[in-house]
């Protein structure tokens, strides 16, 4: 059977989960449609998702359409769960990007679009909710063109507007005569980008047009745009046809050696994408990164929280397996005879932390294992102990992310927990460097000694990265010791002199060094790099950076003054303002509890969205 592996991406409340429900119903996988507001959808099966009315965890489902198996992943739309989207996009071949027909491109829909760009995932766009007051396909398409910087190919027209929206007109397959001008406009747009279509511009057949559109979509030279209303079940079946027609099939050969990537762990199941080869129940596979074997006890076709046992999975499949003990997100599973390492999904750095403590002594003994298991499932969560207070700190991508994580621990373990106030993760940036910083690491304790002599230059580097270089000549420091110095420097970056925060924005250059014929080693030079950079940083000028977010606030015009005043009190820098919206860059620490404050200021009529916008000097 032919396969399509696709994700459903969007800003929160654009209608992703509702669309997934209608797809499952249209393909015969369900016999009734669930609703987000009723808490009975297939993919939002976690109790917290149903309570909160949002998608938190990426959920996979499979269905059949037109002789194709569609493996769908419904992804979260809230910015706090962007890493779930990242991990999903790493293993997908295509995606449906859902846009609100009133709002068009929103902040998080733009963010997930850029993530899909980075992974080279072809997309088709579905402009949803055309039955809502204010919905405008042309305006939504214009926002796709302008904000996402792509060429949209509109292949459908709506029948009716807003409350009178009744369906869609197909401009590719036998369009009615009344749509002749729109069909011609589509042909001309395709011909500008596709040479074969240009040759047939005077008399372009449906087959020629469809083939050219597919070529443009798969190569990402253009984006196919469809429209409809998932809630009213308008435009869903044509969208499924478009998935088959315009999104790529997975590459891969079932006869080759196994190559599969783990992209998600949930409880005792490991989710993976098979790129090459075949996995059979009972197989032993190789984790090349860790140098160990794993046994595949069961293979499961996933239907959200339900699973069906299958005997094997082949290239192109997305499945869950049981029995894998140690593999984590980003692990490559392959054959031992041909070990392979694939690029792992990126993991965002935590921005917010809370202190978590158990209320009982028995709970305190269980808490570390529970938090470790949580971080094992979600790599964007980290757990550490504060060296000053001894508190256990749970760090994540936002306030809601941490609320969900803590509640999951409560639900799965029954522990009574105390949670501290959220606090943001600061950074320390080098603004003034030092040169010629000499550090000698000498240690003699009766056995083999340690000797390493390094000279370091530390200079500011644009951005928030770290660059290491060496200008040592004449073999004064061997290459393996230079690598050890770099490793030691990287270790020193986690604990800056201003307040113990990670250090960013610097270049370290090893300019000279000395070795000892007996006592020098990689360990000694690693220690010299670590302690030498710490000494250098204490001599540098550093600035404290705080995380900021781009916030877009929507409110009635009569409440906008109060909104602007409140943002100013939160140290916001306003970048754009209209009669109903304000866009500003706001320190993340000032956004804790902002939703409640905004509702109060606007009598419940204001809403806001946010997304990370990097760091800036703390006031």
Automatic annotation (TrEMBL):
Classification via InterPro entries: EFG_II, EFG_III/V, EFG_IV, EFG_V, EFG_V-like, EFTu-like_2, G_TR_CS, P-loop_NTPase
Superkingdom: Bacteria
Single Gene Ontology MF annotation: translation elongation factor activity
Keyword annotations of the record: Elongation factor, GTP-binding, Nucleotide-binding, Protein biosynthesis
Tr-type G domain sequence ranges: 1-251
Protein name listed in UniProt: Elongation factor G
Organism of provenance: Actinoplanes hulinensis
């Amino acid at each position: 059977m032919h396969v399509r592996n696709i994700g459903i991406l969007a800003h929160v409340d654009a209608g992703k989960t509702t669309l997934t429900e209608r797809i499952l119903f249209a393909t015969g996988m369900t016999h009734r449609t669930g609703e987000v507001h009723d808490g009975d959808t297939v993919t939002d099966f976690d109790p917290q998702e149903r309570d909160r009315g949002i998608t938190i965890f990426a959920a996979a489902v499979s269905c059949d359409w037109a002789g194709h198996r569609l493996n769908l992943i419904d992804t979260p739309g809230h910015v706090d769960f962007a890493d779930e989207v990242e991990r999903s996009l790493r293993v997908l071949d295509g995606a449906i990007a859902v846009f609100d027909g009133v709002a068009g491109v929103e902040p998080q829909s733009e963010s997930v679009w850029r993530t899909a760009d980075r992974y080279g995932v072809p997309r088709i766009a579905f402009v949803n909710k055309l039955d809502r007051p204010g919905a405008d396909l042309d305006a939504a398409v214009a926002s796709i063109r302008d904000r996402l910087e792509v060429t949209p190919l509109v292949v459908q027209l709506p029948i009716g507007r807003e409350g009178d929206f009744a369906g869609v007109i197909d401009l590719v397959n036998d369009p009615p005569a009344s749509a002749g001008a729109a069909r011609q406009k589509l042909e001309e747009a395709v011909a500008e980008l596709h040479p074969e279509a240009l040759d047939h511009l005077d008399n372009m057949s449906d087959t020629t047009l469809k083939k050219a559109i597919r070529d443009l979509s798969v190569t990402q030279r253009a984006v196919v745009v469809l429209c409809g209303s998932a809630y009213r079940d308008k435009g869903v079946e044509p969208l499924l046809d478009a998935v088959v027609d315009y999104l790529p099939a997975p590459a891969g050969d079932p006869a080759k050696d196994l190559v599969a990537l783990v992209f998600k762990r949930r409880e005792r199941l490991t989710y993976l994408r098979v790129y090459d080869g075949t996995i059979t129940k009972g197989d032993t596979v190789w984790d090349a990164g860790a140098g160990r074997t794993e046994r595949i006890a069961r293979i499961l076709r996933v239907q959200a929280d339900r699973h069906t046992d299958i005997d094997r999975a082949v290239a192109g499949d997305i499945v869950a397996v049981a029995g894998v003990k140690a593999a984590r997100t980003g692990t490559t599973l392959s054959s031992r005879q041909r070990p392979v390492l694939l690029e792992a999904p990126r993991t965002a750095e935590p921005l917010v932390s809370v202190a978590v403590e158990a209320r009982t002594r028995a709970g305190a003994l269980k808490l570390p294992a529970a938090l470790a298991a949580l971080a094992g499932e979600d790599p964007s969560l980290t757990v550490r102990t504060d060296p000053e207070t001894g508190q256990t700190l749970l760090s994540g991508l936002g306030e809601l992310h941490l609320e969900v994580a803590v509640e999951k621990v409560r639900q799965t373990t029954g522990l009574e927990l105390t949670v501290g106030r959220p606090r943001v993760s600061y950074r320390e940036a080098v603004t003034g460097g030092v040169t010629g910083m000499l550090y000698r690491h000498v240690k003699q304790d009766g056995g083999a000694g340690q000797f390493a002599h390094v000279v370091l230059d530390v200079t500011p580097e644009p951005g928030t990265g770290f660059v290491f270089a060496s200008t040592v000549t004449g073999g004064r420091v061997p290459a393996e010791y230079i690598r050890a110095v770099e490793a030691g420097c990287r270790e020193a970056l986690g604990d800056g002199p201003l307040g113990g925060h990670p250090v960013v924005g610097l270049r370290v250059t090893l300019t000279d060094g000395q070795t000892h014929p007996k006592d020098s080693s990689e360990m000694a030079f690693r220690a010299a790099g670590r302690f030498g950079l710490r000494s250098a940083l204490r001599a540098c000028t550093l600035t404290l950076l705080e995380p900021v977010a781009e916030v877009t606030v929507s409110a009635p015009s009569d409440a906008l003054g109060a909104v602007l005043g409140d943002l100013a009190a939160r140290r916001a820098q306003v970048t754009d303002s209209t009669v109903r919206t304000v866009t500003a860059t706001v320190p993340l620490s000032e956004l804790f509890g902002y939703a409640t404050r905004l509702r109060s200021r606007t009598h419940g009529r204001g809403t806001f969205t946010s997304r990370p916008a990097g760091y800036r000097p703390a006031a």
